[in-house]
Amino acid sequence: MPTRRRRLLDRLSRISSSPQLTTPSPLAPPLPPTLTPHHASSTLTLTIPTPHPSQTVQIPYGTDGESLQITIPIPPPPRRDLWTPLPPELKLHILRHLSTPDLLRTAATSRDFHTLTRDGQLWSTLDTTTYYTRIPAAQLASLITTAGPFIRHLNLRGCHQLAADWRQDAAYYVPHNLHTAVLEGAQPSKAALGYIVHHNTNLVRLDIAGCRALTYSVARLIAQSLPALQAADISWCTGLEPRGLRRIVEGCTALRELRACGVNGFDDTAVMAAIHAANRLTTLNMNSCAALSDDAIRTLCLGPYHHHGSGGAGAPPPPRKLVRLSVSACPRLTDAALHVLAAHAPHLEGFEAAGNTGLTDAGLVALFGGAKALSHVDLEGCVSVSDASLTALSRAGRVVYLNVGGCGEVGDVGVVDVLRRCGGVRAVEVDGTAVTDRVLDEAVRAVRYRGVGEVAVAVYDCAGVTWEG
Fold first, then answer.
1. 8 Å CB contact between 378 and 353
2. pTM value surpassing 0.85
């Protein structure tokens, strides 16, 4: 009669020879289970290889303290779902930190994400600045169509693929709640541009620089439909007529910023008279307007009935509200225009006149004496400018940015005066001038001893600057 112990050993031997245990697992190393009798301690150990954490269980049997040890795998804990229990508001807050391309990829992962990514709170802003060259026209048009009712800030700068796509008009017709529209380079059709202007009456900023569709009829629609417009960029819109420019100035009563580089009309007395009468522009950019002349600046400041040398009629006009004025690459301007600005634009903080060779120290000294708040000045390429202008500019101590690159008559005296007197100076560009190592030494002293945080100094092509400096 076999003993109980012998029967148990025979049973375990049959288990160890079973095909299910001897077949190697695809997830674990091909190690067979082992059965090791421990006669001294009357204990049998059965080990089953497993890639997961395991636990040893001791099973007693018999009446003489005999036992069997078996190592069994511990099942992994269930995966915890952290996303589903979140409230919708928190989910939207998390998704709001994703860029538009990431949102489009997320929408394709599940039905829940697809529903969430269509929520209007995620589409108040559509800015293609970082990926406009990589998104196909069809996908961009579909995105605008889907998110159109929710978009408040639309930036399609550089999306030229829309100009050649038949779906562009359908995409432009969807948004109705825009506050900001940047369409530079997108080239909408005349009908699409007119539709945007007519159906987005709350527009505050409109950027259509280089748009061929801006004609007189669209300009008239802008004047009639956008009473809240505060900033407009119509630069390089060659189809805009002077009367269209005048309608925009007169009709948009909230307009404060006008950028109109390279457009026609600033030599028109009616246009400049309209700007004078409104007297609400704080930023006026007329760069590359070759027809801009001293008479146009005089009309801007004094009105259409104040002619040169006549002394004017009636009370003098109120000071202009101009804060930033850009008249670079306007070759017809001379010192006469600067004298007028000095007397009637006292609030100027930024003045750009790069490339105007007709400006000299006489006019600039007068301007800097009248506009004492000037902090950003760009006179690059004004070859007649010398140290006298910079010394006059430094007296107010307000300079933050100064560019006199290419002004060969500028030397150490004027630049050093700016560095010494202007504690807020941050950038000085004097490349191609007659400055020497003394300017670099003064910049170091300004940072080290006078509390200036940092100063960026550009001294390219300066023969007086040596390795020692």
1. yes
2. no
